[in-house]
Amino acid sequence: MGYNLAMVADALRVRSALDNGEFVPFFQPVVDLRSGCIKGFEVLARWNDPVSGIIPPDLFIPAAERDGWISDLTMELLRTAFRAVDDLPSPVRLSVNLSAGQLCDPALPSQIAAVAGAAGFSLDRLSLELTESALVRDMESARAIAHDLKALGCKLSLDDFGTGFSSLLSLQALPFDILKVDRSFVSSMTVNKESRKIVAMVVGLGQSLGIATVAEGIETEEQDQMLLWLGCDYGQGWNYGRPVPASALLDSYFSVRPR
Ligand code: C2E
Ligand code: CA
Ligand code: CA
Ligand code: CA
After folding, report:
1. Residue 18: its H or E element
2. Of the candidates 78, 33, 84, which has an alpha carbon nearest to the alpha carbon of residue 252?
3. Looking at residues 159-180, what average pLDDT do you find?
4. Of 73, 120, 156, 177, which residue is the least packed, with the fewest Cβ within 10 Å?
5. Around Cβ 138, how many Cβ atoms within 10 Å?
């Protein structure tokens, strides 16, 4: 398949959007299921396109990966995110998603260290979320880079756990600190016994390996209660809050509301 003119124009438009600062981080809270307190935020990329408005990541991450500007995008998101949380009343943790391939880029640790250093953000407050597809390419370099990142203080998180073909191999391959239970299991766990047992197994696996578990896509109080009962540590989902832009962070998640 060749490129046509429209596709080239589109690629240029997306690329210049990066230079224009149109890619912004949204922030979704991660809560401690036992206390209900916010533990940190996941950074989720959005394209704030002057023409179309807010565009979700599925529509531009593949282009960023294919056209080689995914790490520029990640660094831009981190720069903006570090600045946004600097203004908050208390220090928070952040997590950011990495694409397949980024963990094989030897420049990654020093780039992250430079961006964090410039913002005064301590890297023991940053987690890097990886899916197993991020690991399969070149395991030897991935392992070396993962160790460099951990030496900087970053935590490693295995995202979408249970959805790939080799989740357990991935878990064994790198020193993960956090296991994220995929939304597909969480959303069916209150109505489907198999899903419930899978979630219980993943939480138990995390406990026996000494790895924290985070359940994704919690939309109801019933799911929250079941996950708490199963011993899951943290949760994320619409039940606690949707992703919001930096400008709404303080009002949405840090204001004491009068009753
Ligand atoms: P993910 O890392 O699994 O992120 C969770 C997705 O679930 C987010 O979608 C989030 O908005 C959505 N979500 C959160 N809570 C709920 C809920 O209760 N119900 C439902 N139905 N959905 C919920 P989003 O923001 O559209 O991101 C989609 C995916 O795009 C992410 O999945 C991640 O894989 C990727 N992504 C986002 N930002 C970045 C980035 O900066 N870099 C890379 N490489 N990938 C990114
Ligand atoms: Ca994620
Ligand atoms: Ca996920
Ligand atoms: Ca997912």
Report:
1. helix 5-19
2. 84
3. 91
4. 120
5. 13
